[in-house]
Amino acid sequence: RRQVLLRPTIEEDKVDCLRWCIAFPYARLSTSTVHIQSSNEMHDMLTSWISSRGLESTARSFLAKVDTAPGATMNDTDKKLLKLLPHQGSFYFWYKGQLLFYEARQEDYRYFDQEKITLTSLGRSSYILKDFLQECRSEYLNKIRDKITIFGHRGVQWKRDRVKEARPLSTVILRESEKAPLVADMKDFLNARTRRWYAQRSIPYRRGYLLHGPPGTGKSSFSLSVAGELGLDIYTVSIPAVDDQSLKSLFQELPANCVVLLEDIDAVDSAHSRDSMAATPASGQELSTVTKGVSLSGLLNVLDGVASQEDRILIMTTNHVNALDAALIRPGRVDRTVRFQLVDQDVAMQIFHYMFAQQGDASNQDPHSQPRLGVESQAREFARKIPEGRYSPAQVMSYLLQHRNEPDVALSNLERWVESTNGPIAPVQRRSVSAP
After folding, report:
1. What whole-number distance in Å separates Cα of residue 233 and Cα of residue 257?
2. Three-state SS for 422?
3. What subcellular compartments does it reside in (predicted)?
């Protein structure tokens, strides 16, 4: 009975002691502290751990958001789950018998606000904080195993956009004669023996790929899929949305062993170099007012200048390969080039087979209907009827989705659809430049 009454007293004493240590600067010498910025993935790892244990309920200030439950369908009533995260406040919690103090504050950082979390423990040793953060990391990585993390950017900060199931490479429509060597080259580059080979010869350890072709041919889809195949996170940058300084800052913050996707590389201004940060935005001024785009020299310095990053795979995409400056795609900056083409007969067969292969057995057919061609025969007939070099894979898949449960109808209506589209792909308007 005494022990039951005594324990809360000891805990309260520890809380009072920690409060006193935090409140008085000199007393902070008796504590250990770690700081975590919201721009770092450790922030996601920590908040995930806190939420999974319901500790956010002890906070007094929250950030409310909705999130989709894993595996939820469009008809689920709870598909938008309410989540409350600690926000601009503080609370205490226990970890392995040690009292930890959590505090979150908003700070200005390079024209943008970001959250900084501070964790404090009693004692001058930081072992308990390291142990705690390691557990947060391990638990988070276990949750996203077999998934791909996609990072975008907000200004000069990387920000996790989403975590999604890795898309199998088999679902990316590309000639196997082009896909297989490309993936094999990437896997060989990541091999430990290859890394040692580069190091022994003092060659910068990086690899560059250029994917080009009309819109909708699968360049971005392949990039995301291959990142999942390689088990790497992917960091995406839309060239029209950044300038020289922000691109440099983003590359400096890249981790080792990742895929970097530079989209719309033809938006680089090769005419001249510009100092994109000549003007500093005043307080409250939008960053877009000083964004001037990426110059060719700025991009080249990021890719292979003195301070350029190594330990990464770079993928650049463009719809207009002829618009690229020769200096950008010379060997050493671009190691392999792959053209993503409009649909031909081989690709048309792949798409049709991919969309309807699971419906090809007799168990799914109406016994009173006329015998239906097998999916292989239907795929060949579909490929024979569709004009080559006119449609992108995305357009063909969009058509087939309209008849996703009726391959016979998709085949019989194909000629009517071809006539209605009346020719090749319409010209695509270039995207306007906008700040992230």
Report:
1. 8
2. coil
3. Mitochondrion inner membrane
Rounded distance, CA 80 to CA 72, Å?
9
Residues 352, 297: contact at Cβ < 8 Å? no
Does residue 233 carry a pLDDT above 90?
yes
Secondary structure (3-state) at 316: strand
CA 46 – CA 95 distance, rounded (Å):
13
| 336-339 vs 312-318, strand pairing mode | unpaired
**What are the residue ranges spanned by the domains of the chain?**
2-68+80-143, 163-278+286-339, 345-361+369-421
Tell me the pLDDT band of 369, cut-offs 50, 70 and 90. very low
> Quick one: which of 160, 228, 233, 198 has its CA closest to 335?
198
Q: List, in order, residues 6 or more apart from 42 with CB less than 8 Å away.
A: 36, 133, 136, 137
49-93 pLDDT, tens digit per residue, is 988 887 766 666 666 666 654 444 445 555 566 666 666 678 888
Based on C-alpha coordinates, what's the Rg of the chain? 27
Compute the distance between CA of residue 205 and CA of residue 405 in angstroms, rounded to an integer.
48
Return the structure tokens found at 250: 């983003």
The gap from C-alpha 267 to its chain's centroid, in whole angstroms, comes to: 21
First to last CA, the chain: 61
Residue 50 sits at φ, ψ, to 5 deg, of -60, -45
Q: Is 90 helix (H, G, I), strand (E, B) or coil?
A: strand
**Averaged pLDDT for residues 323-328:** 90
SS3 assignment, position 326: coil
pLDDT at 199 over 50: yes
Could you list the beta-strand ranges (E) of 155-273.
157-165, 206-212, 234-238, 258-263
* Token pair in block for residue 162: 């989403």
Residue 155 DSSP code:
T
Phi, psi of 240 (to 5 degrees): -65, -15
Quote the CA–CA distance of 353 and 91 in Å, as a whole number: 56
CATH number of 163-278+286-339: 3.40.50.300
Whether residue 203 contacts residue 304, with contact meaning beta carbons closer than 8 Å, is answered with: no
Q: What is the pLDDT of residue 71?
A: 44
- Phi then psi for residue 234, to 5 deg, are -120, 135
- Residue 94 has φ and ψ, to the nearest 5°, of -105, 140
The residues with which 84 forms a beta bridge, in sequence order, are: 64
pLDDT value at 386 more than 60: yes
**Residue 70: alpha-carbon gap to chain centroid:** 18
Instruction: Work out the percent of the chain whose per-residue pLDDT is above 90.
Output: 34
Q: How many residues does the chain have?
A: 436
